[in-house]
Design brief:
Shape: elongated
Helix content: 10-25%
Strand order of the largest sheet: 1-2-3-4-5-6-7-8
CATH architecture of the largest domain: Beta Barrel
Number of helices: 2
Amino acid sequence: MDRIATILESQLRMLASDKSGSRITSKSFPILLLLILLLNHCGPGTPLTEDQAVYMGRWTNGESFIQIYPEGRVDYRIVSERGTFSVNGAALTIEQSRMQLNVLGNEEIWIIDEAPVKRDGYWSMTIDNRDYSRPAE
């Protein structure tokens, strides 16, 4: 991750010192913006511990889902009466009774109302008052 940040930083410096004398040109601006977004998105999540391994997998609630990866990343789609919100590759840290997500530099906190519990061949958990489940392996 540090190597990616170093490469992006050097690209940003190169774009910022354009030969035309202009600091940022109309040609370089879209590239600069993309690099900034990538740099913000590259923040690492916190790998799940052995105790947190029960959180891994694809959890569903109707059309909504949360996909949690062992390296501390999460993809999700939340469907509600207010609309649909989707994110892929957010950095994830699970601490006690909350999940902290970092999406392009914006932090979001989800409350773990009920940690994963195995019942009748399914795992279930409640996050922000929404019940999610996944089949037990």
